[in-house]
Amino acid sequence: MQTLSPTRMNLLQRKNQLRIARQGVDLLKRKRDALVADFFNIVRQALAARERLNEACENAYVVLSLAKAVEGRQSLEAAALADKRELLAEVEIVNIWGIKVPTVQASNIHRPLMERGHNPTAVSARTIESASNFEEVLSAILEVASTEIKLRKIGEEIKKTTRRVNALEQVVIPRIHAEIRYINAVLEQRAREDVFRLKRIKKKLEAKKA
Amino acid sequence: MPSDFGYINARVKGMRSRLLAPGRVEELLSLPTLDAFLQALNSTPYATDLQEALSRYQGLRAVDEALMQHFQKTVRKLLSFAEGKSRDLIEVVLMRWDLHNLLVILRAKHVGRGGDDVESNFVPAGTLSEIRLKELSLQPDIAAVASTLATWDHPLARPLSEGLYRYLQDKDLMALELHIGRYYYEWALRATRGADGSAASVRRSLETDIDYTNLATAYKLQLAKDMPRAERQNFYVPGGLLASHVFVNLADPETAEVGQREIRARGLHPEGATPADIERWVAQQVSRQHTQLYLGDPLGIDVVLGFLAMLYDELKNLRLIARAKVLGIPRDVVRREMALA
To answer: What is the reported pTM?
Structure first.
């Protein structure tokens, strides 16, 4: 407060700052509300994706276990040796309320029977079913990754926005208010001093005349 | 040492007593946890193998290793008191494990893998010993595997060498696998030609295997909707009673109904809606037919074939029960999946 010079110019500047800060709070609150609405939508998507993943894993592991039990680990792992591929995932950056959110997508996760490289005369139906189920698990994992990273990014942004709103409401606006009050007080004091001085001068002039 | 099946069967019947009784299997199924299952398994003939496996692995892996070790030991023991023609006949049956091991090696070489990944998937219950399998797995590529196998004069070296040229041109591993698989049955049927009762039993058993393999393959191929009809023919294994046109009809989703009528006319009534259900039915039929052989000719190979089927069924059942304990699979689901003992 000591460095602030109590001038009318500074008063006007502070009043302008206060108006901008209030506008900023309003805008940030609206952004936060929109983000929260988006957040809850994505929470629903994330829960659905998690549920899909859990269901896919449950099916996949039960079928895999049955396949391992009936065919033997050796047969299953031997089948897996022939089924090796590279899966390219596409990461696209999407802008949501100024936040850069990556979305992960991969095509061709689910393959037809013959593209897995399994020989149908040597590989059991359970192994085929198991491979198909794990393709579904992979697809569900990518969906979970995509929704959960979106959720985390939006959550972080909500936290950041709330911190900004709080900083403006609790620190910046009260400080500008205090500065305005200080400048006003100083200016009023100066005005009173001026009035008093003028009155004294007037009195002295009147005394001289008399 | 005597080489006739009379002696072998007497020994096998002794070994049969070491298989678990259905009541004991039911007891194992009713146990609440894997630990309880492991404890119970410790009071069975699997105890030694289990303790050995538990020193190297944990949980299900230990169970799998112990069961497979027990299976291999039993097979080796069975072979140890067979010689001459009877041993040759038993080896024809056990050659399917050589086929399995060879496919493991070929797949690994195809994708450039080796070492423990390959060796841990071997089942040395065939004619190729563990040392020979390791030597094969150390070869740098499929061509070298074919050469090594040929130097040992192994029956599967021929189809591997035959298919090698085409494989090197188009890198189509499946075509090579199909060729070797078909050759195995062709070779085994040729090796069991003749009037000998035991050879005829093995031949019948192979024909049953071929028929049920074709049946299960046809149902699996129904999943490949856009495969040309002519290509489906490539998966047919000749040598069984199921004709190739019936197989193709059954394998093609458009003519599957015709195929089903044709197989019903041949006395096959597969039950189930999915290929996995059909395969379960097929496995149960094969298991039933093979285990019945145990009560067949006491002076022929039937008893050995029946015993081997029962032994492998028991191994599958125990693997299933162990997994049911870990994953909490309901008992009725396990019972449905279990092989008939």
So the answer is: 0.80
Decide if A122 touches B, using CB distance below 8 A.
Answer: yes
Instruction: Indicate whether B1 pLDDT > 50.
Output: no
Q: Which CATH topology does B96-191 take?
A: V-type ATP synthase subunit C fold (1.20.1690)
Residue at A23 is within a domain:
yes
- Do residue B237 and residue A62 have CB atoms under 8 angstroms apart? no
| A68, A120, A125: residue with CB nearest B235 | A120
Give pLDDT tens digits for A80-119: 877 778 888 888 898 887 888 888 888 888 888 888 888 8
Provide, as residue numbers in chain A, all residues whose Cβ is less than 8 Å from the Cβ of B121: 73-74, 77-78, 81
Q: Is B173 on the interface with A (CB under 8 A)?
A: yes
Residue B311: predicted pLDDT: 92
Query: The domain spanning residue A41 has which CATH number?
Result: 1.10.287.3240
Count structural domains, chain A: 1
pLDDT at A1: 60
Question: Is residue A57 within 8 angstroms of chain B, CB to CB?
Answer: no
| Domain enclosing residue A99, as ranges | 8-209
Q: How far is B86 from chain A (nearest CA, A)?
A: 27
CA distance B34 to B59: 7
Contacts of A117 in chain B (CB under 8 A): 173-174
The whole-angstrom distance between B120's CA and the closest CA on chain A is 7
Contact state of A69 with B104 under an 8 Å Cβ cutoff: no
Residue A2 in any domain: the answer is: no
Residue A1 domain flag? no
